[in-house]
Amino acid sequence: MTKLVVIGLDCAEPKLVFDEWIGDLPNIKSVIGAGVHGLMRSTIPPITVPAWTAMMTSRDPGQLGFYGFRNRSGWGYDDLYFANANYVKAKTVWNHLSRHRFRSMVLGVPQTYPPKPLNGIMVGCFLAPDKNAQYTWPEELRAELDMAADGDYIIDVKDFRTDDKDWLIEQIRVMTQRRFKAFRYFLGKGGFDFAMMVEMGVDRIHHGFWRFLDKNHRLYEPGNKYENTIHDYYVELDAEVGRVLDMLDSNTHVMIVSDHGAKSMVGAICINEWLAKKGLLTLNEHPTKPTKMKNSMIDWEKTKVWGEGGYYSRLFFNVKGREPKGVIDPKDYEKFRNDLVVELEAICDENGKNIGTRALKPEDVYREVNNVPPDLVVYLGNLDWRSAGTIGTPSVYLYENDTGPDDANHAEDAIFIWKGPGVSHEAQRKQVSIYDMAPTILDIFRITTPPEMIGKIIK
Q1: 292 and 257 both lie in a single domain
Q2: By CB neighbour count within 10 A (0-12 exposed, 13-18 middle, 19+ buried), where does 361 fall?
Q3: CA-CA-CA-CA dihedral for 141, 131, 87, 77, to nearest 10
Q4: Is residue 451 part of a domain?
Q5: Comparing C-alpha atoms, which of 157, 194, 197 is closest to residue 179?
């Protein structure tokens, strides 16, 4: 009988896994040696939401209709929502498997809160506000889940952007141990054809400790206390993976994947401050100290563009007939957008060096553009810089994250590793797309790729 286990490692970085530390990761190395591996190109943008859902549906963010955690639900200025599972309308891998009477276990896969019924069990993701919410399906699974996880299953590390690094290390380690214990417990009970978990600890430890590892980071100090923290966590993670592998027979397919990689963050561009200096955004009263911008602060009748902070920037235009107090004439829209792309891509650092920004039009990068997209998707410094929404800063350049300590940004390439019956070993790495995962998983179970899926079966 066909079985597949997918171990998701959110933000696992290919250079660390495949190159720098592979000799210290014997269990992951064994899967690589028995199958195929390579880089997996992530979504635009390469962030947790929407990347995991894109992976499990083979639909791009434009088709899915959400472009990050926070999205506009309408053309109003305050119409924002968090894209949880209620907004996922596309069929996931486990939806298709359920229809074909295959049984699934889905644990912690991002954008599965609130959980939906399936043929199997589901533990929702970090979007659950706390454990008082119904984050498992069936609901009565919670008590057994806690029991399997040393008495307290941890949904996520709250407040991981902190200066208390010793506390953070311990929280991430304990979370990872308990989540893998729970996964192995339910795996050991049997009865699952498809089992998938996603561990968020990799992402959290990258954001918390990257500057201590990366010699090119501006805050790196040789011989610092936390220099080996990420490495040691990867070694522990590999041991957890090994304990899962020990439970599986040679006929079980195994995939180890991430949704995106990681890279050093140079700093942040205060995108709204930049727009204000360009005369494109006007506030009722411009603050004299760094302030989180609220839409109520904006003079809409004098504003053409505003932006959101995050690992990438979403820019929204104030268009006549579209937004309530729009000022951009629709006939001027495309010229205005083209001119702004040129200005964005000309952004330089404080030394006058162009940082390499990419400004993308949604309709150019997605097959469809559903719901309310940003007018521009902007990779500041090609993701070397993040976007800060703060206004009132003395400079557009910020070297401390405005939402708390954060050392890393996301990179576009993720990891892909697969072994199983009929999977030939290839010395050369493959380059695959995140959209190829769902068709490949269904093909393992001899399910024809649905026509709406945009990826290809990995051969």
Answers
A1: no
A2: middle
A3: 170
A4: no
A5: 197
Domain boundary among 358, 387, 405: 405
Q: What does pTM read for this prediction?
A: 0.96
The domain boundary residue, chosen from 382, 405, 428: 405
Q: How far is it between the farthest Cα atoms of the chain? A: 67
DSSP code per residue over 102-141: --EEEES-TT--S----SEEEE--TTSSSTTS--EESTTH
Q: Is 354 contained in some domain?
A: yes
What confidence tens digit (pLDDT) does each residue in 116-175 have?
999 999 999 999 999 999 999 999 999 999 999 999 999 999 888 888 899 999 999 999
DSSP-derived secondary structure letter, 18: I
User: Containing H/E element for 276?
Assistant: helix 271-277
- Count of CB atoms situated within 10 Å of the CB of 227: 16
DSSP 434: G
Q: How far apart are CA 189 and CA 107, in angstroms?
A: 15
- The alpha carbon of 204 is separated from its chain's Cα centroid by a whole number of angstroms, namely 11
- As a whole number of Å, the end-to-end CA separation of the chain is 21
